[in-house]
Amino acid sequence: MAIPKDPAILLSYVNTQLRDFYPSLEEFCASAGADRKEIEETLSKIGYEYSKEENQFI
Q1: Residue 4: Cβ within 10 Å count
Q2: Cα torsion at 46, 8, 43, 24 (round to 10°)?
Q3: N or C: which end of the chain has fewer CB within 10 A?
Q4: 26 phi and psi, to 5 degrees?
Q5: Cβ contacts of residue 51 below 8 Å, gap of 6+?
Q6: 39-53 tens-digit pLDDT
Q7: Taking the C-alpha atoms of 6, 23, 36 and 7 in order, what is their torsion angle to the nearest 10 degrees?
Q8: Cβ within 8 Å of residue 1, ≥6 positions away
Q9: Cα–Cα distances in Å, from 2 out to 5, 26, 58?
Q10: In the predicted model, what is the mean pLDDT of residues 2-19?
Q11: pLDDT for 12-40, tens place per residue?
């Protein structure tokens, strides 16, 4: 599946992937071929930041 472009859908998709399959954002990005900086910038525009402790965007 391609990484969603819509920020709200991206948030749901990434958090689900992190919860169910990946122990870190780094591992998700490496596996999915995703750009971590782009994901973080997109989600910061809607008020979400990555929490390493929670392994979720909150």
Answers
A1: 14
A2: 140
A3: N
A4: -60, -45
A5: 57, 58
A6: 999 999 999 999 999
A7: 10
A8: 13
A9: 9, 17, 22
A10: 98
A11: 999 999 999 999 999 999 999 999 999 99
What torsion do the CA atoms of 47, 52, 26, 7 make, to the nearest 10 degrees?
A: -20
Q: Amino acid letter at 19?
A: R
Phi and psi torsions of 55, nearest 5°: 55, 45
Q: Where are the beta strands (DSSP E) in 1-58?
A: 50-51, 56-57
pTM exceeds 0.90 for this model: yes
Cα–chain-centroid distance for residue 53? 14
Q: How many angstroms separate the CA atoms of 19 and 55, rounded?
A: 7
State the amino acid at position 39 in one-letter form. I
